[in-house]
Each structure stands twice: as structure tokens, then as C-alpha cells.
Design goal:
The structure holds 3 protein chains of 3 kinds.
Chain A (H helix, E strand, L loop, with lengths): L2 E5 L5 E8 L6 E7 L2 H18 L5 E8 L3 H17 L3
Helix pairs in contact in A: 1-2
Chain B lengths: L3 E6 L3 H6 L7 E5 L9 H14 L6 E5 L8 H8 L7 E4 L5 H17 L8 E6 L2 H5 L1 H5 L5 E6 L2 H6 L9 H17 L2 E4 L8 H14 L3 E4 L5 H8 L3 H19 L5 E3 L2 E3 L1 H13 L7
Parallel strand pairs in B: 1-2, 1-8, 2-3, 3-4, 4-5, 5-6, 6-7, 7-8
Antiparallel strand pairs in B: 9-10
Helix pairs in contact in B: 2-3, 9-10, 11-12
Chain C lengths: L1 E2 L5 E2 L2 E2 L3 E2 L31 E2 L2 H8 L6 E4 L9 H11 L5 E5 L9 H6 L3 E4 L5 H8 L7 E3 L4 H7 L7 E6 L1 E2 L5 E2 L14 H6 L2 E6 L19 E4 L6 H4 L10 H16 L7 E4 L4 H17 L3 E8 L1 H8 L3 E9 L2 H9 L3 E3 L2 H5 L13 E4 L3 E3 L4 E2 L15 H7 L2 E5 L3 E2 L2 E2 L1 E2 L14 E4 L2 E4 L4 H8 L9 H12 L7 E10 L5 E8 L3
Parallel strand pairs in C: 5-14, 6-7, 6-10, 7-8, 9-28, 10-13, 13-14, 15-16, 15-19, 16-17, 17-18, 19-22, 20-25, 22-26
Antiparallel strand pairs in C: 1-2, 3-4, 11-12, 20-21, 23-24, 26-27, 28-29
The chains are: A alpha+beta, B alpha/beta, C alpha/beta.
Chain lengths: 89, 289, 516
């Protein structure tokens, strides 16, 4: 299975791992880490927004968080998806 | 004012979020040396998100792109230029006027494509080789976009086949040359970084020296360096008081239609008034004209 | 269910705590009546040696039985051996159902979890941090923990709210007749401030020492008048965990920025004058505030009267340089502080009662001009929470937070607005430790936020050019904007923690976390 990663586990960052999903599987988002307890909904929303804006419909996303704000989360999701699509590491 | 221009590593969310809070005059979001080769893409995306949505207070915002000898620089420019938050780019390894022209042309193309007034994006040139320093005046006057020229530190000493000393002997001539070239071309001379981040006394000494040479400010690699550099560049209370007197006297004389004025028994001519005005600008007491 | 003065829902009766008194305001409750007395003892010259051999013999001699209350002090901090040693022995002796009444617990005490699970300890009155806090928050104890401040605790003892059956006092130095001090010996910890009230009021006081000196040992902190049993053990603690090395001022730019704003506020306030007194503790930001204040004091040519509370080497330096006249030390944080309190008569040991008790003839906090505190969150009404973390678990003791805030003329909470994504400023704190009426300013990396009721401070700051004033509205909307909306903490109805205000009224309760 094709996967890609972007981000780090440094403070205020997150590590986003994305994997190809079968057609029709939809977007699945998993969140763990420091903000997961209180910001899960907000983070899911942001990740879903970025995915939608990139026109991706089927993907698995796993976010290991260390305090990323939306602005960072968005950038990391975008970077991971671009790496996946671009076939780069 | 460009007393302090703080480098923020382009792949560091913490610094990109908080960097502007430390009160520097400018920021340099760094896509070059602070970013590992394998992370050029993620840093570029992160910096773009911050330019679009981030906060920078009243800082002058620039991005240091990768050199024109790399595969990254055009992508860097395309990613960052469209955002109004960006005021300039810092270009590394500028050796000659031709390098400036290449960047200038690329900037014009991107600006035009994005409906931005052509020429809006300023260029801050890093002169990191002996050749670059030798060509300093040509570089500074190669394009109206050039806002400042900055000597390299580590790269330049390596190119000179010497090493960095605490006295900065090896950079002495380059710094003097750079101030002359910048002033002659009407751009700002801005100094290189002081790498020893816990040596507060050394930083103060070096800043006093480069201020005396005529530099407008200094590049900064750690927020704790900012107050020290500002302290050196800020006019003292005595200087401010004297400047206020001179400017007031000049204004009064102008209203009475007189040219020359005297303050405290000394004749004051136009260059002195200009310098006094500049002192007040630096003290935040006068708007830049 | 009734609402207290802060609008918090407090049941009239809490299982395992009893009838509640509602918080009415920081200074509203006026006590009446008399202090609780201690047990009368009579020891004549047939007893010239109070030593027993071994911790179990001491426990047996103390009369400690199942169901009683045992107390400990926390001056040995994370190096403490005594709490675990005593409770282990109790467990082996078949003693159960104890109420643990420590002045604070540390990570090293996570060993108590096995004794909580086996029923040796069934109730805790005192701070629960780390793993014990997590256990309690998830419903691991049948009886709620009671959180009291450093001043609220001696008040509770002296007023009879809490009766101590046996106090075990870790004693870095003791003699055979029970004269104790903390400044000498291999396990020296400096001040023994938190142990005094327990020594005075417990039915039986046991000194546990690893440095027995010939009678009479001197200097004396707690004297033979209050000590019933002395027991010698090989070691009461690990020096590396008891005191830290030299406390250094942080180089972290964010903390320095916040500290600089805090010191600018202090400098602009009417309290920055000859004779200023302050408490800054050992945290990164407060210590840096002290460093900035030192610079400002030298520049403006003023000297302070005293430094209070937990004392660091940095404070000792101020004393040596004559920038403060006295140190009033309830807890010595580092080696320098321990050395100084043992040598310098201007560095005085004070008890928790003296430090912070609201119900005596005047605690030291009343004389305090400025205190710098932290908090996990502060809300738009300036109410502060120091007990629970973002996920809703009990993680910190109250410490002197309530007492110094109530006493000081200028109470500052200095804290980054964001720790990761979690904001420290919210609409409504998850639980209240200290009411907004005694909090004067919040300092974040975005500037100085002054409680609007302190119009005098606002005016003083507005008069100084360049002070970054930020209103509470601006600050909280910035927090919202950057962090986004929070998900609520999922809780059960059951109360697992009761947060008392320093006067013994209930300021808030903490509920059990729902299983994930």
C-alpha cells in the first residue's frame, strides 16, 4: 500500500501519515496525541477541509499530534497528500 | 527600520507562530540553510500557509529562498510571492548583477501572473563569496527591487579560505566595502548574524562595531539577541534630547524663512538637521518621510 | 445542589466529604470560636530517650491503628523515602483504611497506588499529582480527595476540621529527645515550614531521621516539646531528589518575553518602591521575572524588604547583595537556599501557618506586595485553575496559590497563552482554584491583561509608553481563533475531588472522568 508522511513530533507540530484507500472507501481520520482529548472535532474538520480542497475522496489519514494549530495541521496534511500523489517519499 | 531581521526556520511551526512576538523589525522565513534537503517541499508548504493565514505584527516579512543554482528557487518564489504579507525575498549567494536580474525577471513574471503590481517584491541580497563582495555596488544597483545587501558570514569566510574569529578580522574589509557599496547605491547595508547565541557581551561588542561602520542593522538567529541589538542601535536619551532641539529650531527657522539656525551656540546646517531627524525616526518619535 | 458565589454547582452533602460550606467570596467568611487543642502529654524524667528501633516499632508505639489519619511533610520532595517507608510498613503490619494527609505528594510516591488498590489508604487529603491524580480522576478511590492550599491546610488543622492521629516528620537532623532541624545532615532540605502545624496538633509525633546527633542538637526547628518518638533509619531520602543544583535563569525566549512583560507591569505599578516585598517561586518564568526586577531595582536605586515562600539560590543572591533585607522561607528549593538558611540569620524559617493561614493573627502573605503565579487556565472573569489539566484530570496541588493571591497587593499570573494547541485563557475554567477577585493581571506572550476592577493599575500602565496592554476580550478571542473550539470533557456525576478555598468553604468540585 502506498503511504506518505509529513511533519514532525516537535512541539506545536504533528506527524501526518496518509495511505491510499480503495475507491469509495471515503476519508478516514485517526487522531492521537496531546490535543486529541479536547480538539479532536476541530482537527478532524480541518483535515477533512484540506482533503476536500485537494479533490481527494478516498484516503486514510493518521495524525500524531504534539500541539499543532490548524494552520500547521493544514500544511502537514497538504504536504503528506502531495507526497502521496506525487509518489515521492 | 531594519535594526534586526530575525531568521525563522521554515519547517518550525513553533517559531513561525511566535517569531514576530519577539519585537524584531523584520523576519526572514528561511527555506534555505535551516531546512534539510528532504524537507524542502514541506517547509515551502508550511511557509505558504503562514504567509496566507499567519500573523506577523508590524514586522517586515521576507523569505529566504534557495539559491538560483538549485532546483528549488523557482518553486520557492511561486509558492510565496502571491501573498500580500510578503514584502521581500532574501536571495542567497548573489555573486553579480546578473543573478539579481535573473531573480528580478522571475519575480516580474510571477507578479504579473498573480495580479500583483510588478516591482512590489523587494530583494535582499546575500553576498556570500569574495566575488559577491567585489561586485557589491553592481549588485546593489542592479535593480530597483534591491532593498539591502548583506555580507555572508560562514560561507564568505570559507570562500576567503580563512575561519571565523571572535574579533571578526577576516570580515572587516568585506563589511566596510559593503557599507560603501550600499550607501553609494542607496540601499541598506545589513550585517550578518552573530552565531554565538549565548555570548551576550560578544554580540553587544560586534553590534557596536558594525553600527559605527555604518550598518543599518543586523541579521538575527536567536530572539534573545534582539533586545541587545536594539539597545545598541537605539539613540540614547541625550541624543534624542539634542535631536529634538535641533529639529525644533530648524522648523522654527523655516517658518521665519531663515536657512541657517543655531542651537546651543553652534550653527546647524542641513545635514545635521537630517541626521537629527533620523535619530528621532529611530527613537520612534518621527514618522519616516 | 446549590450555587456558590462563583456560580459553581456544589451539592449540600458529598459522600465521603460530608456537609459542604459554600464559597461566599475570598474574605467573606468570619470564623468564630476557639482553636482545636492538642492532646495533653506528660513526660517526666523516667523518659530521657524517645528512640525506638525501626519504623515498625515506631508505628506500634505511636498507637496508629486502622482508620486513623497520618500526616507527612513534603520538604524532601521527589527524593522522599519516608512516606513510602511508613505506608509499606503499615501494610505489612495489617493496618488499613488510613487517611493520608500529606502537605504534598510527588512522583516518587506513585508507589502508594498499590496501597490505595489494596485498601491500606482509603482517603487522601492533599494534592494528588501524576499517576495518583490520574487514578483518582478515573474513579480509583471511593472517597473524594480534598484539595487545600498551603494556608488552608494549617487552618483546617488548627480549627479542628482535620484531626491528625500520627504525624511522621522526616528529620534531616534529630537528637534522641526529638529536637529536629532541616538544615544539617546528608538529607538536608533547609526549611521544615510545612511540618510545624502537624507537630503542634497531632496526637503523636514521630521524627524519622538519618542523622542522629547528641542531645541537645542545635539549631532547632521543631523542638522536643512536640515530638513523642524518634526513630533512626539508614536514609530518609535521596539528596539528588531533595534539592536541585543551582537554579539558573531560563534562556527560553518565550518565557523571557513573558517575564519581561511581567516585570514591566511591576515596575509601572505603585508597589515598585523602596521596601517592595515579593514572592516568585522557582518556575522558569517567575525566576526570570526576579532577574528582570533585580536589574530594574539596581537601575532605579530601590531595595526590597523581603522575599517570601519557596526560596531559590537566586533569592539568596538578592539577599547577599542587599537588594532584599530578609528571606522568609517555608521551603528551600536548591542547595544555595539550604546553605543560606543554615548560615544567614536574615534568612528565616517560617511555618505554613505563619506563611499563609487565613485564620491566625496575620499571615506573611498579608505583607506581600507582589506575587507571580502560574495556572493551567484562567477565564474571562480571571478565575484561575491550577488543579486540573486540559483533559480534566487532577494533576497539581493548590500550593500557596490561593493564599498569596489573596494576600498580595498585586497578583500576577504569567503563562504562555498556548501550550501546544491548548490555550490558558478560556471562557470558563474547568475547575476553579482561585477566584478572579484576587487575581489582578494575566501576562502572556501577547502582553499584559489587567483585571478591569483594578482601574488604578490600568491607569498606571497606560501612563507608561510602550507597555503592551491587551484586554481580556482580545486575549480570549485570540485564544479562540488560534486554538479553535474545544470538545467538552466527558465526566460522570460522581465527585472525586473537592477544592476548598483557604477558609474551608468549597470553591469547586471535580468530577470523575468517563471511561474512554
Amino acid at each position: 500500500m502506498n503511504t506518505a508522511q509529513a511533519g514532525t513530533l516537535e512541539s506545536m507540530d504533528c506527524l501526518v501519515t496518509v495511505s491510499e484507500a480503495a475507491q469509495g472507501a471515503g476519508v478516514k481520520i485517526q487522531i492521537a496525541g496531546s490535543s486529541a482529548a479536547r480538539f479532536k472535532s476541530a482537527m478532524e474538520k480541518k483535515a477533512a477541509e484540506v482533503i476536500a480542497s485537494m479533490g481527494v475522496k478516498d484516503i486514510d489519514i493518521s495524525i500524531q499530534d504534539n500541539g499543532a494549530l490548524d494552520i500547521v495541521l493544514g500544511a502537514r496534511v497538504e504536504a503528506a497528500v502531495k507526497r502521496l500523489i506525487g509518489g515521492e517519499r | 527600520m531594519r535594526r534586526t531581521m530575525l531568521y525563522l526556520p521554515g519547517n518550525n511551526p513553533n517559531m513561525l507562530t511566535r517569531g514576530y512576538l519577539f519585537g524584531s523589525d523584520g523576519l526572514v522565513l528561511d527555506l534555505e540553510d535551516a531546512v534539510a534537503m528532504a524537507e524542502k517541499d514541506t517547509a515551502r508548504i508550511l511557509v505558504r500557509h503562514f504567509l496566507r493565514q499567519g500573523e506577523f505584527g508590524s514586522c517586515e516579512v521576507t523569505v529566504r529562498i534557495n539559491g538560483v543554482d538549485t532546483e528549488y528557487w523557482k518553486d520557492d518564489l511561486a509558492a510565496v510571492i502571491p501573498f500580500p504579507a510578503l514584502q521581500g525575498i532574501r536571495a542567497p549567494k548573489v555573486d553579480d548583477a546578473a543573478t539579481v536580474k535573473i531573480i528580478d525577471e522571475e519575480l516580474s513574471i510571477i507578479e504579473e501572473k498573480n495580479g500583483i503590481p510588478v516591482g512590489r517584491t523587494k530583494i535582499f541580497c546575500l553576498l556570500e563569496t569574495a566575488k559577491g563582495i567585489w561586485n557589491a555596488y553592481d549588485i546593489a544597483s542592479a535593480s530597483p527591487r534591491v532593498a539591502a545587501i548583506i555580507p555572508g558570514g560562514e560561507d564568505l569566510t570559507a570562500d576567503l579560505k580563512t575561519s571565523r574569529s571572535s574579533e571578526g578580522t577576516e570580515l572587516d574589509w568585506a563589511r566596510r566595502m559593503l557599507v560603501f557599496a550600499a550607501r553609494a547605491a542607496g540601499v541598506d547595508p545589513i550585517d550578518t548574524v552573530f552565531p554565538r547565541v549565548t555570548d551576550d557581551a560578544g554580540l553587544r561588542k560586534e553590534t557596536e562595531f558594525i553600527k559605527q561602520l555604518g550598518f543599518e542593522g543586523k541579521s538575527v538567529i536567536h530572539p534573545n539577541q534582539i533586545p541587545i541589538i536594539h539597545n545598541v542601535f537605539n539613540p540614547t536619551e541625550q541624543e534624542i534630547e539634542k535631536a529634538l532641539k535641533i529639529v525644533a529650531a530648524a522648523k522654527e527657522a523655516a517658518e521665519r524663512g531663515q536657512g541657517a539656525v543655531s542651537v546651543d551656540g553652534r550653527m546647524v546646517d542641513i545635514p545635521v538637521v537630517k541626521r537629527a531627524e533620523y535619530t528621532l525616526v529611530k527613537a520612534g518619535l518621527l514618522e519616516v518621510k | 445542589m446549590a450555587k456558590n458565589a462563583l456560580g459553581r454547582e456544589i451539592p449540600e452533602f458529598i459522600e465521603g466529604y460530608g456537609k459542604t460550606k459554600l464559597f461566599q467570596g475570598a474574605f467573606a467568611l468570619k470564623p468564630e470560636g476557639y482553636r482545636a487543642g492538642g492532646k495533653i502529654r506528660c513526660v517526666n524524667n523516667t523518659c530521657t530517650d524517645k528512640r525506638v528501633s525501626g519504623i515498625k516499632a515506631a508505628i506500634a508505639a505511636s498507637g496508629l491503628k486502622s482508620g486513623m489519619t497520618v500526616s507527612f511533610h513534603h520538604h524532601l520532595r521527589n527524593g522522599d523515602f519516608v512516606v513510602n517507608m511508613v505506608i509499606d510498613a503499615c501494610a505489612e503490619m495489617g493496618i488499613k483504611n488510613l487517611t493520608l494527609f500529606p502537605t504534598a505528594l510527588f512522583g516518587v510516591h506513585k508507589k502508594l497506588i498499590e496501597h490505595i488498590k489494596s485498601g491500606v489508604i482509603t482517603r487522601i487529603m492533599g494534592s494528588v499529582n501524576g499517576p495518583i491524580g490520574q487514578l483518582v480522576s478515573e474513579g480509583g478511590m471511593d472517597v473524594p480527595v480534598v484539595l487545600r492550599s498551603h494556608g488552608g491546610r494549617p487552618r483546617a488543622v488548627a480549627s479542628g476540621d482535620v484531626h491528625i492521629d500520627v504525624a511522621f516528620i522526616a528529620a534531616p537532623t534529630a537528637d534522641k529527645y526529638g529536637n529536629i532541624c532541616g538544615t544539617q545532615g546528608k538529607s538536608a532540605c533547609g526549611s521544615l515550614g510545612y511540618a510545624f502545624t502537624d507537630a503542634q496538633f497531632a496526637d503523636c509525633v514521630v521524627a524519622v531521621t538519618d542523622n542522629l546527633q547528641p542531645y541537645p542538637a542545635a539549631p532547632v526547628s521543631i523542638s522536643q516539646l512536640n515530638v513523642d518518638i524518634v526513630v533512626e533509619v539508614p536514609s530518609i531520602g535521596d539528596p539528588a531528589g531533595i534539592v536541585s543544583g543551582t537554579t539558573k535563569v531560563t534562556r527560553d525566549p518565550l518565557r523571557l518575553l513573558i517575564a519581561k512583560y511581567a516585570s514591566e507591569l511591576i515596575e509601572a505599578s505603585p508597589y515598585f518602591k523602596e521596601g517592595i516585598s515579593f514572592q516568585t517561586g522557582a518556575g522558569g518564568i517567575p525566576l526570570a521575572v526576579t532577574a528582570f526586577m533585580k536589574e530594574a531595582m539596581i537601575k532605579r536605586g530601590i531595595k526590597g524588604s523581603f522575599g517570601l515562600g519557596g526560596i531559590t539560590g537566586y533569592f539568596v543572591e538578592l539577599l547577599k547583595e542587599g537588594l532584599v533585607e530578609r528571606l522568609m522561607d517555608v521551603q528551600s528549593f536548591d542547595l544555595e537556599a539550604v546553605r543560606s538558611i543554615g548560615e544567614n540569620p536574615k534568612h528565616i524559617e517560617i511555618s505554613a501557618d505563619w506563611y499563609a493561614n487565613p485564620w491566625n493573627s496575620g499571615a506573611a502573605v498579608n505583607m506581600l506586595d507582589v506575587v507571580i503565579l502560574g495556572a493551567t487556565e484562567v477565564d474571562v472573569n480571571f478565575n484561575a485553575n491550577v488543579n486540573t489539566e486540559a483533559e480534566g484530570a487532577l494533576l497539581h496541588g493548590t500550593g500557596g496559590h490561593q493564599d498569596t493571591a489573596a494576600g498580595a497587593k498585586l497578583t500576577i499570573i504569567a503563562q504562555p497563552l498556548l501550550r501546544g494547541r491548548i490555550p490558558c485563557v478560556t471562557d470558563n475554567v474547568y475547575s476553579v482554584t482561585t477566584p478572579g477577585e484576587v487575581v489582578d493581571a494575566i501576562i502572556t506572550e501577547y502582553g499584559i491583561t489587567i483585571n478591569p476592577k483594578r482601574k488604578d493599575l490600568l491607569d498606571a500602565c497606560s501612563a507608561v509608553k510602550g507597555l503592551p496592554l491587551v484586554s481580556m476580550d482580545e486575549l480570549v478571542s485570540r485564544a479562540h481563533k488560534m486554538s479553535g473550539p474545544t470538545d467538552p470533557v466527558a465526566t460522570e456525576d460522581r465527585i472525586i475531588g473537592v477544592v476548598e478555598w483557604r477558609d474551608g468553604t468549597v470553591i469547586d468540585v471535580v468530577h470523575q472522568l468517563k471511561k474512554k
